[in-house]
Hints:
Radius of gyration: 28 Å
Number of helices: 3
Order of helices and strands: HHHEEEEEEEEEEEE
Shape: elongated
Distance between the termini: 92 Å
Low-confidence stretches: 5-9
Oligomer: single chain
Amino acid sequence: MANDVGALLSVPGIARWVVRTWPRRIAIAMVAVLILVIAAVGGFARVAPEPARQLAVGEAVDVGPYTVTVESFFVSDQVDIYGIPDEADAWVGVVMVLETSELEGIPTDYQNFRLSGADLVEERFQQVVLLADDSRANFLTADLPVHVAMLWPVRDSGAIGDEVELTLTETYEDISFLFQTPTWFAGDRIGVIAVPRDDEVPPAILDEEP
């Protein structure tokens, strides 16, 4: 009896059981044909990612908790901000307008922004400052648009060209499984902005004693 069970559970035994009757043989043949058809029409091919949507300078883009309107960027080692890393030689500042309608306000979120076209010391922006008086703008108040510079420390600032790219990603609010509190999570990429260079740094954020 044990030998019979062992024979049935062996690979040849299973194969004989599968094809023992005509209905099983027909079903297997249909599955095989279906697989061949799907492969022939490219059903198993890896789908190429959609090209990034090109966003315009000056376009108000809704990223979820706030809107972002990008204007330009500058490169400077004279920004009056404490805390530039030792390995950085300048700041890249992306000038933009941020506005939220969240009644309780909202912090600016690094998940919404990714900068390319410069050798960044850190992938996340390090500071957000008001262009009017260089005070921090890391928290946005409802229905109060703010004109800011979002700052990344960079190496080899002399290699930065006339354009950088800023990728905007949406975030959405949901309940954190771990903490059971409302949390903002990264969602889909919205698009990419080709940001033009303008090295006229707003005077209010320049260090008076370079």
